[in-house]
TrEMBL record:
Zn finger region (dksA C4-type): 97-121
PANTHER family linked to this entry: RNA POLYMERASE-BINDING TRANSCRIPTION FACTOR DKSA, RNA POLYMERASE-BINDING TRANSCRIPTION FACTOR DKSA-RELATED
Record carries keyword Zinc: yes
Domain Zinc finger DksA/TraR C4-type, residue spans: 92-120
Organism expressing this protein natively: Sporocytophaga myxococcoides
Keyword check for Cell cycle: no
Protein name, per record: Transcriptional regulator, TraR/DksA family
Alphabetized UniProt keyword annotations: Metal-binding, Zinc, Zinc-finger
Pfam family of the protein (one): zf-dskA_traR
Xref: Gene3D superfamilies: DksA, coiled-coil domain
GO molecular function ontology, one term from the record: zinc ion binding
Length: 127
């Protein structure tokens, strides 16, 4: 009977490292795009002087800026989670469920490479 693996091999970790590096690259580009869009929105909008219409546009602008700001915050959190996953690869704890101590299946890690929980552990959490 084969014993249960306690960690992924260096070769397997390299696959996940590349997957995470690609996702990090894309996530950082998206964050830069969001920041540039926010910056452009902040630069424009001072040349309109048409009373009520201006108030409506300001309201829409504010809502849109808030939406972009929330998007940027989510993207920064995602980047941080990916960077943390890279650190776990380096220290040898990547792919190990923090709740059960068992290996998280590769399929789950490929879908959510920054996860620290197996599906079972995630479903059992009450948060």
């Amino acid at each position: 009977m084969a014993e249960e693996k306690l960690r992924y091999s260096d070769e397997e970790l390299k696959e996940f490292q590349q997957l995470i590096a690609d996702k990090l690259d894309r996530a950082r580009k998206e964050l830069n795009y969001i920041k540039e869009t926010l910056s452009r929105r902040n630069d424009s909008g001072t040349d309109n002087t048409a009373g009520t219409l201006k108030l409506l546009e300001d309201g829409a602008d504010t809502a849109e800026k808030e939406s972009f700001t929330q998007l940027a915050a989510r993207q920064q959190k995602f980047i941080q989670q990916l960077e943390n996953a890279m650190a776990r690869i380096k220290n040898g704890t990547y792919g190990i469920c923090v709740d059960s101590g068992k290996l998280i299946p590769k399929e789950r890690l490929r879908a959510v490479p920054h996860t620290q929980h197996s599906i079972e552990a995630k479903l059992n959490r009450k948060d």
